[in-house]
Design brief:
By secondary structure, the chain is α/β, with parallel strands linked by helices. The protein contains 13 helices and ten strands.
Length: 331
């Protein structure tokens, strides 16, 4: 099963050699490499040209002008790719040499699987490990369950380099992907998992670089991440593929997160985020109704859970079946 490894690069001369070498030394060998340079202004071209004669390199493209979006580069790479599986190997990351072997094997064992991902180390400016993701054991999860239990609340596949996916599913992702600067990957994975299962490896095989001055860090520092997340959920809601209540649950979750952080933003930044929440629901009053509804539902669930636990702990065991029937009849 051939893999197309797409390496989108922009001004990562410092990291590019390590990235390419970590691909070339993979224990799984049935792959091609496509390098896309988005008009870098550093010495990236010289490093890329050094590898041109390598038999694994199938395509090198240097843009004459910057595309303005890494997700445009993703789409370009998908159109060129010959493999059944795709790996977006971001140019400032690197990986263990069995990365492809583990994830390809995970997909091959389950024909319904459309995406597989490993755990990852998050690396700082000086290659120090900031944190790492964890998963207790390797497992397969249905795509719709993965969405409503995990992906809807956050971009669980938080780094493109940690995953591989089926090309046929990726080609069905809407072109609105390119509208995003920050949330394009989240939008991408939501649309991918609709088409099959997800394989999660417990192995930490990827090294994800997140510099202190990155676009992501700047977005979180100003609250812009909330604005783009809400724009993304507008598109997801408009697709009418999932229940609106699930999407609203995520928006409610994001609002609570914003409330915890809003004092870190300027008055202008906070106002822009508030306006984005109101716009999502169709206005101030409709958003307040959404909040009220979610808070009431949350309170009711807590009360019902407390009542059930109290009944189970305070009654003789022979009465519990009757209490369960009474409780379920009120559900």
């Amino acid at each position: 099963m051939k893999v197309s490894v797409i390496v989108p690069n922009y001004n990562h001369e410092k990291f590019l050699k390590r990235r390419i070498e970590s691909i070339l030394t993979q224990t799984y060998e049935d792959f091609e490499i496509i390098i896309l340079d988005d008009c870098s202004t550093d010495e990236s071209r010289e490093i890329i040209e050094f590898y041109r004669s390598n038999p694994k390199i199938s395509e090198i493209i240097f843009n004459e002008t910057n595309s303005g979006s890494v997700f445009r580069q993703w789409l370009k790479g998908l159109q060129i790719a010959k493999g059944e599986l795709i790996w977006m190997a971001e140019s400032d990351d690197w990986c263990e040499n069995n990365f492809l072997e583990v994830l390809v094997n995970g997909i091959e064992k389950n024909p319904a699987c459309v995406v597989a991902f490993s755990q990852s180390y998050c690396i700082g400016n000086n290659n120090e490990i900031k944190w790492q993701s964890r998963h207790p054991k390797p497992e397969y999860i249905k795509g719709n369950f993965f969405f409503k239990e995990r992906l809807v609340y956050g971009c669980t596949i938080f780094n493109a380099s940690m995953a591989i996916f089926k090309k046929e599913a990726a080609l069905r992702v809407p072109a609105e992907l390119t509208k995003f600067k920050l949330c394009g990957d989240w939008f991408f994975w939501i649309n991918i998992v609709r088409h099959g299962d997800v394989f999660i490896s417990d192995k930490v095989l990827n090294y994800y670089r997140r510099a202190d001055n990155s676009l992501t860090e700047k977005a979180y520092a100003t609250g812009y991440n909330f604005i783009e997340e809400l724009n993304m959920f507008q598109l997801i809601k408009a697709q009418k593929k999932e229940r609106v209540s699930i999407i609203n649950d995520s928006v409610f979750n994001r609002y609570n997160s914003f409330q915890r952080r809003k004092n870190k933003f300027s008055q202008k930044e906070a106002r822009l985020v508030f306006d984005a929440f109101y716009h999502f629901s169709g206005g101030y009053f409709l958003f307040k109704i959404l909040l009220l509804n979610k808070r009431i539902n949350l309170l009711v669930r807590k009360i019902r859970l407390r009542i059930k636990v109290t009944f189970q702990n305070s009654r003789p065991s022979k009465l519990k079946p009757l209490e369960d029937r009474l409780f379920n009849s009120c559900s």
